[in-house]
Amino acid sequence: MMGSDFPTPRLPRRGGRDLLSAAAPLFRRSDLSLANLEGPLCSEQTPGKEPLPGRRYLFRTPASYAFNLKNAGISMVSLANNHALDFGKSGLTSTRKALAEAGVAFSSKGGEIAEFVVRGVRVGVISLSFGPPPRSIVFPARPLQEISRAAAKYDILILSIHAGAEGRGALHVKAGMERFLDEPRGDLVRFAHDAIDLGADLILAHGPHVPRALELYRGRLIAYSLGNFATYGGVSVAGESGYAPLLTVQLAADGSFLEGSIDSFRQTPMAPPAPDPQRRALRLMRKLSAEDFPDSPLVFDEKGRVSVKKSD
């Protein structure tokens, strides 16, 4: 969420062109760089829902900011989240148009699959969220059927999932249905495992707004939350909510996990994400991964490399 001008302007300097500068070299050197875009890129005046202090916030980012994503090296964004319709269907239409003009691919609850060919390998990215169907993990039958069909079409299938409980009390991954403000937010563990059983290869979750554990399941990587990264002025970045991991993953041509790395950034209020020399995001995710998935064979070194423990 690159800044909002609703209800009052809280936008970064220079039209947000410097917001992602520190991370741009990492985005650009990857074959694909994926992100979750919270909030529409639009100028619509009529909100799609009513703000509720302490419970519901609305975002609206200028459409021109789509080019900031492209210029930073972002290949694709997810629009399947609880802020995509902050300014209704017209706001979402504006977002799709702005991204298409900037050359940034996207996937939403509307059914798009972002498609890429990387060195001859066919890659598909599907975005899902909670809430009502379609593509809601709270109602898993239909999205799992779609995943099964898509897995037969693509060599590598990536899922971007906005789900799970929120906040600093939701650091740990727990089995079963997660809830936030009395709303069901999905059973991330079961859905992720079922999706991989049906052919998904990489799962990136980002609903809790705090970093969470990584798990290796049947040779496929699951990131249960990548927290916040560039949520300028609209989302709390206190404590662990300000730990901003950037996850890089190397996959084999069949989608199996080879190795990865976590680059730690830090968010502070009304400022771009900046590299964190204390590597707090890495240290937190390493700790949570060991606690929540003690049998998972992932190894984290001090510099952020993530590898698979060799068998004895």
Q: How do the strands and helices of this protein lay out in sequence?
A:
Blueprint: H1 24-28, E1 34-36, H2 66-72, E2 76-78, H3 88-102, E3 105-107, E4 114-118, E5 121-128, H4 141-153, E6 156-161, E7 178-180, E8 183-186, H5 188-197, E9 202-205, E10 214-217, E11 220-223, E12 243-251, E13 257-266, E14 274-275, H6 280-292, E15 298-300, E16 305-308
Parallel strand pairs: 1-2, 2-3, 5-6, 6-9, 9-11
Antiparallel strand pairs: 4-5, 7-8, 10-11, 12-13, 13-14, 13-16, 15-16
Helix pairs in contact: 2-3
Strand content: 15-25%
Assign the CATH architecture of one domain.
Answer: 4-Layer Sandwich
How far apart, in Å, are the first and last alpha carbons? Answer: 45 Å
Number of helical segments?
A: 6
Helix/strand order: HEHEHEEEHEEEHEEEEEEHEE
Number-wise, the strands total: 16
Radius of gyration: 18 Å
Name the average pLDDT.
96
What is the topology, as strand order, of the major beta sheet?
4-5-6-9-11-10
CATH class division of one domain? Alpha Beta
Class by SSE composition: alpha/beta
Find the CATH topology of one domain. Answer: Purple Acid Phosphatase, chain A, domain 2
In the predicted model, the low-confidence regions spanning at least 5 consecutive residues are none
Helix proportion of residues, in percent?
A: 10-25%
